Records
---
Amino acid sequence: MATDTLIDRRIAAPAAAQPRRVFVIDDDDVMLLTCRRTLEKDGYDVETFQNGLDGIRRIEQLQPQLLLVDLKMPELDGLQVIERVRKVDPDVVIAVITGYATISTAVEAMKAGAYDFLPKPFTPDELRLIVNRGHERWRLATESARLRREKEEAERRFVTFVSHQLKTPVVAAKQYLDVLLYTSASELTPRTQEWLKRAQARLDEMLTLIGDWLELARIERGIDSIGEPLMTSDLRKVISDVIDASQAHAQSAVVTLETDLAADVGPVRGDVVSLATVVSNLISNGIKYNRVGGRVTVRTRLEGGMAVVEVGDTGIGIAEESLPRLFQEFCRVKNDQTRDIPGTGLGLAICKRIVATLGGSIGVRSHVGEGSTFVVQIPTAART
Ligand code: ADP
């Protein structure tokens, strides 16, 4: 039975509305009778089994909130029962009953997934304590799973809202401006044309922000296949393609793009889109925060089983005090040189998330007035 279905079914009904169901598996029928009497008096719905296999079968059908299982039984012992129960129902709270309570058996049972421990012989109050505590734990776990689902659903709705309700009208407004500028240019004064172009540029900034924000949300929710162990890509090709695609940007900024790509790096972990996003963000920043006539150099090398990509520039550099928060969302270094450079402050945060998902790292060295070098480490396919 799929775990999701179990959780869904449990979350579907409010915890208070569900019968408080306890299963007890023990080969000792006196023990079973004692448990049943004590717990039924407290309003629990109790089912007892002398045999582990019968209990497991019934757990699949009924999903009790709580299972009490004896560790020492002739056929399947308690640890084996716990192991199998965990496979059919990872959410049931398990407490073990044992007549030979030692630290090592307790540790073993906890490792196998038990939550609590009830040494024999026990009084009805001791039994109640364990069962009530277990039930409370189940209630809290169910409640937090429900809240987690609600949060994910709210995030999903928000992403949909942003993409449709916000992006669509911005794209439409931009298209109207396009039409106005290119079909009615002769009727517009140069001043009006200038204003319309500025309005277009602001809409472009907004679209970039929405795009970056959606990208970040996608990475966070794990929608992309980033980091799938079998997904590897040719880093050299990814970098060459991004360099080609960045030439127009570089030329308009009068910046030269250079590469020094080691032949021995080979394929690296990650899909082409994610790797290209990282390289492209870094190259784009290298161009944006450069000076006229400057350079952006992309180098690769192999170091301890990791591919190292360095994107260096001859630009404005970053003050030391800004470095620690550079990879945080919406961080933009504000000074006279950056004031008019458009950006969202999300590019480096996206790079960091992608690289971390791939099992790598990203860092930066910088000197104000001399330039910056962003250093990315990504596991090679050989390490995967
Ligand atoms: P943005 O969209 O603002 O460029 P990023 O997350 O890519 O967002 O970068 C965050 C901030 O880090 C930038 O606003 C800029 O101040 C600084 N920065 C990033 N790359 C460079 C660079 N190569 N040279 C100088 N400053 C940089």
---
Amino acid sequence: MKISVSYLKSKYTIKTTLNKIDLTDADYLHVDVMDGRFVPRKKNQYIEIKDYLKEIKKELDIHLMVEDPLKYILDYKNLKPTYITIQSEIKHDLKDLIYMIKSYGIKVGIALNPLTSIEKIEDYLKDIDQVLILSVNPGAGGQSFKKSVIYKIEILKKLREENGYHYEISVDGGVNIETRKYIKDVDIAVSGSYICESDNFQEKINILRNVK
Ligand code: DX5
Ligand code: ZN
């Protein structure tokens, strides 16, 4: 299982947190971007964090919790991220956004809020590289994992197998030593406060990966 580390909630400064993540063997740095519209808080605006992110060696996994992703895609593409993930609930035409992200050679993810069903993105599954299952309400780190979303993992695996789709399945929110067991089968686990509020990031990552 690959690990993507979110730094939304950390006991260290942003610079220290990012440096500590960079020293681990995590697969991705998960960047939660919030616009104050799709979710109440504003966080990780490009202008504030671009210089920090340019210093980081980890591959970037950008999660856009924003109502209007256009200008965010135009900004964040400059950091050459591996993934840009957009939310399925926004009013925009997802097809256009998927095409736009791909045109920059960046992999595309679509995120599902806990109450959003898979049917909503069925038409796009063939074209995308990641489905991000949110296991908390978007907008804040440190919330409890919602078991009510687990069923989506099995459905997405089945659809992928039956149709030859290639997306990776990722779960984001409340992932820790207790909840890890519910997501054994996913390709990518996103974890934030469990890692970044601890003294030893690598140790927590090893636990999530189940390395003794
Ligand atoms: C929720 C974010 C998540 C979250 C992860 O809005 O998309 O990435 O902050 O952090 P933890 O692991 O603390 O739930
Ligand atoms: Zn996220």
